[in-house]
Amino acid sequence: METDRELEELGYPQMKHIINRLPKDMEERCFARGIIIEDKTTGITDEDIYTEILSCRNLKSLVVTGVPDMSDRTIVELARMIPGLQGLNVNGCKFVSDVSILELVAKAPPLEYLYVGGGVVLTDPVVCAIAKTFLKLLELDLSDGPLVSPVSVRDVWTFSRKLTRLSLARCPLLTDAAFPCRIKERGKKPAPEDKPLPHRPWTWIGGLEPLMLRHTAVDMRVLDLSGLTEMTDEAIAGVMVHCPSLVTLSLAGCTKLTDDALESVSTLGVSLQWLNLAHVPQITDSGIMKLARECTDLRSIDLAFCRQLTDLAVMELAGLKNLVRLVLVRVQKLTDNAVDYLADHTPSLQRLHLSYCDRITLKSLHHLVSRNRGLEHLTATGMPAARRRGLGRFSDPPPETWPPDQKAVFRVFSGGHVRGLARFLDKERVRREQSERQNIPFVARSDDRMDLY
Hints:
single chain, alpha/beta, Leucine-rich repeat, LRR (right-handed beta-alpha superhelix), 15 helices, 31% helix, globular
């Protein structure tokens, strides 16, 4: 089959991607390189996709996350008719099952990315077949797989050696047995315990031997392990040794992780840029300080609902020269000291989330928006200080589906509204200073006039 450049040299139209619609004529069907249906409001059905596949023989990729009734019949036809398929995304298509994915494996197209997460129910034999068949796979998404167990994930680590992106988020059966173990742990006997642990029922997953791998996933850049509530610090230590070049890592909702896990993550050094630690309640200032000192190129870090953190952790993060996004939602021990320090030491910051941080006052928010001219997005929903008169007119409108009590406390400032908020608070400060000089009681107002009365 001719390449895109060869077809263009022969005078044929350029290969194209068709987004949120179907090909409109035979020419588009012949030269469609990819069909992407992500918008569920288009009304495109499984029957429509099935019909189009018969004509789109040069198709390289198919994304149908916006076709909820996508079925096995269409995927089977796709495997049969499109031998050169390089990418398939059926995330959230709950009518796709083992039957069609096994047919895809049998035809063995040169797949480079495969997204079968979002509730697609696949069993271990199928996941093992994917790992052993598509050896050139670059991206794999198995998120929300209720039946994906450590047995099949171990095969992914073993055989899919070229992966650059892997998502195992919210797979409830995954434990430490699903992840590579540190080589130095081989043969190490557990330390004797003073008191024996209570009897724990044995399961076949618990009987798996540690996964020892001699190779490393040097190409892995994005890893999503969100919501793996049975994963411990030991698993993270093994993963960090096996994936030394991670750029993006998500550990949100991994409730058993502690500061020891952050010490392992810190070994990534300057390669790590995006980190999600939301809802990891056991981490403390010590772990964040270690992380900030080692991973000096961090650009985004999410610490929402990490309730043990204090101003010390934020002050350490403020020293990151490339930090552009920081999420501190419901980190309730934070005070004005942390916000003032961010304002004075983090000029690169563009997005800051402070919702439900009750101890932060309007004075520190004013200092932040005045000093940090690069700030483009600030969330202060639920903060008592943000309910001050006049601030609401600079906020984005709340979602229509929210109840009235939540709409009343919604405060999200973005774009030019951040600068407008800064100018409004600057005027208020001037009026306050004037009232103090003239011994006149200061009254907060919502307008922009400068007169005191």
